[in-house]
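The step that takes the researchers longest sounds almost clerical: writing a folded protein down as plain text. Below is the pair of lines this work produces for a single protein:

——
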Amino acid sequence: MPRKTPAVIKLFVLDTNVLMHDPTSLFRFEEHDVFLPMATLEELDQHKIGMTEVARNARQASRFLDEIVSGCETGIESGISLSSKGRKGAIGRLFLQTRAIQGSLPASLPSSKVDNQILGVLLSLRQEQPGRPVILVSKDINMRIKARALGLLAEDYFNDKVLEDTDLLYAGVRELPADFWDKHGKGMESWQVEGRTWYRIKGPLVSSLLVNEFVYLESGTPFHAIVKSVDGKVAELQTIKDYGHQKNNVWGIAARNREQNFALNVLMDPEIDFVTLLGQAGTGKTLLTLAAGLMQTLEHKRYSEIIMTRVTVPVGEDIGFLPGTEEEKMSPWMGALEDNLDVLNKTDEAAGDWGRAATQDLIRTRIKVKSLNFMRGRTFLNKYLIIDEAQNLTPKQMKTLITRAGPGTKVVCLGNISQIDTPYLTEGSSGLTYVVDRFKGWPHGGHITLARGERSRLADYAGETL
């Protein structure tokens, strides 16, 4: 591929955390050049040991570097082409630090610190190559601040971001304009199947609708429907089941608001294999998911068991090694499961204490708690898999988990993207944001952003004012 000659080819100096976050970052700078300081390679070497995601990424980055460098025994100083390994996107060159570089750092910055050594390299490169921009790329905010304080150019690594602004994230719900029927009612067809009304509509809004998106109109007669198909300028809408009515309750739980009703519609639909529920604390994500899982596992016999897993990132200090089996080790992380089971067990008032105890035992035999660490290589058949706190997963971990699903398995991802505890993961680059964006419009996937908290007036007030 001929090398484009843009107005100016930039030189990007990579911090170690960029490679450990995304090993393919080496190939993401298109026609621009990439420079790796020796300090970065040294840090990469220190982090390669272990079974964590960071260690795996460090090893993968080292493999990529080995591939690139081993094909070029001489001329490392003049740069090694990044396009040689069949990667069409990158046509720049890779430069490695081949000699000691002494940048004139301020006396207040100790040169023993790795970050400062990289800043020294940047200062030196800028002096040597005044004709082109030399830019530090780092996921470390403090590192970028220090670089800018020294008058250097610094950027975050943006290539991993699914969306620049999470306000643009697909919500799964759309309010129709008040004049919707005036503009889309002309030549509309309508029919009924199994108590649900179908509408075939044409109009200006159709092209922007997505399959399995929920639409609603509250003015006049409330209208709640799901988009079942979009074909060019024609869309088919189907009215939804009202889970807000007690006669349609799911394991004793009825929807308390519009979004919860939409969520129960996708959770209870056997045609939908993948569901993502986003929402603040107290919007009912876990409760609705568990209620739908118990109903379909114990009553409808659609799934053989419920498997629940979550990322074990503590909010406070870690509590160290825990004794016991996998289930017992995971139990401290599963307080949310226990709390929700208490609510679900209280719904059967007629059963009495003995009946409730028997139901509780039955439920516990059907719910398995698994650790994420042992998911690789497994296949789940006819299971209802719940991934809680999914916002703490990277896109790669998310892919590993979802590809575990065998025939007849439903995967439900729950999370709140404003509560990310994993280092270097942001709202824009979280695995949860990634799957919501990639799965939108798929006929067998559903997504709802739950809007209203339903815990208590205290929790709602705290959420708003604190």
Remarks:
- The radius of gyration is 27 Å.
